[in-house]
C-alpha cells in the first residue's frame, strides 16, 4: 500500500486544491471501524506525501455527528501518517477573532455526547494524557508558516465543540463566552482525541466564518445578505488555510518526531497486556502493535 507522512482533514475546497495542485489519487482504505468519510486522496505536495480526507464526505453529505471519526483516523494511521493538520469552519465568540482570520487552536471544551470517542472501548482500557489536546510542535510550525500568509493569524484559541447540527441558543452562546471559549464548531471532537490515541500529532486551524449569535446583528440586515457574507468569508478563510498548510508543508521537517504525541500510549494502557484477546490485538495492530510487541 502507498504511504503518506502528513494527513490533512478538511472541507472540499482543500481537497480540490490538493487534486489540482498536487495531482492526487483517491485510494480505498479499509478499517475495522468502517470506511472513512471519503477515500483518502494521496498526493505529493511540496515534496511531502500527504493524504487528504474530506471530513463531510463527497458532496458534504455527513453531518458532524455522523462523521466516521474512528475510520478517518485509523485510515490515516494505516497509511503511515504521523502528523495531521485539520481545518474546520467555526463561529467566533470573540470580537477580535474576525471572520476570515485563522486560529491555531490550543485548547478544547468538548460538549459532544453521541459520538464514538475512543478506539479502546472493548477488551482494552487506555487513558491517554490530553491536557494539551494539540501538538505543540505542529502548532509552532503553523505559526511560523503563518508569517507568509496575508491574514491575521491567532496563535491560540479555545474551541468549544458542540454536538449540533443546530447552532447554539443565545444563552448558550453567552455561556460559552463566559467559559473562556473563543470559537465554536462541531467537528474537532473526537477527531483530536482519536489522533492522540493513535499517537499522531494533530493541530487544528480554525476558520471563523461569522460571529456566533451572542453578537447582535445590525438592524435591517437581510438574512440572505448575511448568508452570502458567511459563504464569502468561508471561501476567503479556506484560501488562507490552503496558503498556510502549503507553506507549512514547504518548511516542514519530516524527520522522526520528538514530541510526546508519538508515545501517547506508552503509559496509557491499563489492561494486562498478556490478557488482551489476540483477535483484538490483530484488529488494532496499527495502533497498539508496537506497545504489545514484547507481550
Ligand atoms: Zn506532536
Compact description:
The protein has 295 residues and is of the alpha/beta class. It is built from 8 helices and 11 strands.
What structural class should be given to the helix and strand makeup? alpha/beta
Low-confidence stretches: none
Main beta sheet: 11 strands, mixed
Number of helices: 8
Structural Rg: 19 Å
CATH level-3 fold name = Rossmann fold
Report the CATH superfamily: Nucleoside phosphorylase domain
Small molecules bound in the structure, each named once:
zinc ion
What's the CATH C level?
Alpha Beta
Short key terms for the protein model shown above:
295 residues, Rossmann fold, 31% helix, alpha/beta, binds zinc ion, single chain, 11-stranded mixed sheet
What does this structure look like?
31% of the residues lie in helices and 19% in strands. It has one domain: Rossmann fold (3-Layer(aba) Sandwich). Strands 1, 2, 3, 4, 5, 6, 7, 8, 9, 10 and 11 form an 11-stranded mixed beta sheet that branches. A hairpin with a 2-residue loop joins β3 and β4. α3 (136-145) crosses α6. The model has no long low-confidence stretch (mean pLDDT 93). The chain has 8 helices and 11 strands. With 295 residues, it is of the alpha/beta class. Bound molecules: zinc ion.
Blueprint of the fold:
Blueprint: E1 6-10, H1 12-22, E2 25-26, E3 41-45, E4 48-54, H2 69-78, E5 83-92, E6 102-104, E7 107-110, H3 136-145, E8 153-154, E9 158-161, H4 170-179, E10 183-185, H5 191-197, E11 201-211, H6 223-251, H7 278-283, H8 285-292
Parallel strand pairs: 1-4, 1-5, 5-11, 6-8, 7-9, 9-10
Antiparallel strand pairs: 2-3, 3-4, 5-10, 6-11
Amino acid at each position: 500500500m502507498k504511504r503518506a507522512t502528513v494527513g490533512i482533514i478538511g472541507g472540499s475546497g482543500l481537497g480540490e486544491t490538493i487534486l489540482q495542485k498536487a495531482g492526487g489519487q483517491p485510494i480505498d482504505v479499509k478499517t475495522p471501524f468502517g470506511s472513512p468519510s471519503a477515500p483518502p486522496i494521496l498526493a505529493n505536495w511540496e515534496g511531502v506525501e500527504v493524504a487528504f480526507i474530506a471530513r463531510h464526505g463527497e458532496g458534504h453529505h455527513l453531518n458532524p455527528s455522523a462523521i466516521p471519526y474512528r475510520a478517518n483516523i485509523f485510515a490515516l494511521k494505516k497509511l503511515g501518517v504521523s502528523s495531521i493538520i485539520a481545518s474546520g469552519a467555526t463561529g467566533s465568540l470573540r470580537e477580535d477573532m474576525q471572520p476570515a482570520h485563522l486560529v491555531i487552536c490550543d485548547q478544547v471544551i468538548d460538549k459532544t455526547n453521541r459520538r464514538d470517542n475512543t478506539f479502546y472501548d472493548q477488551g482494552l482500557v487506555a487513558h491517554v494524557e490530553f491536557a494539551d489536546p494539540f501538538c505543540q510542535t505542529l502548532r509552532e510550525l503553523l505559526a511560523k508558516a503563518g508569517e507568509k500568509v496575508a491574514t491575521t493569524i491567532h496563535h491560540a484559541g479555545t474551541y468549544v465543540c458542540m454536538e449540533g447540527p443546530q447552532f447554539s441558543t443565545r444563552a448558550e452562546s453567552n455561556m460559552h463566552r463566559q467559559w473562556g471559549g473563543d470559537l465554536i464548531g462541531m467537528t474537532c471532537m473526537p477527531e483530536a482525541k482519536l489522533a492522540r490515541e493513535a499517537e499522531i500529532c494533530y493541530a487544528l486551524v480554525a476558520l471563523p466564518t461569522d460571529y456566533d449569535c451572542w453578537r447582535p446583528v445590525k438592524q435591517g440586515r437581510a438574512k440572505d445578505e448575511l448568508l452570502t457574507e458567511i459563504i464569502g468569508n468561508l471561501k476567503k478563510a479556506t484560501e488562507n488555510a490552503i496558503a498556510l498548510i502549503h507553506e507549512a508543508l514547504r518548511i516542514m521537517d519530516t524527520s522522526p518526531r520528538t514530541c510526546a504525541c508519538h508515545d501517547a500510549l506508552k503509559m496509557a494502557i491499563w489492561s494486562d497486556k498478556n490478557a488482551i484477546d489476540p483477535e483484538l490485538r490483530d484488529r488494532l495492530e496499527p495502533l497498539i502493535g508496537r506497545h504489545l510487541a514484547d507481550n
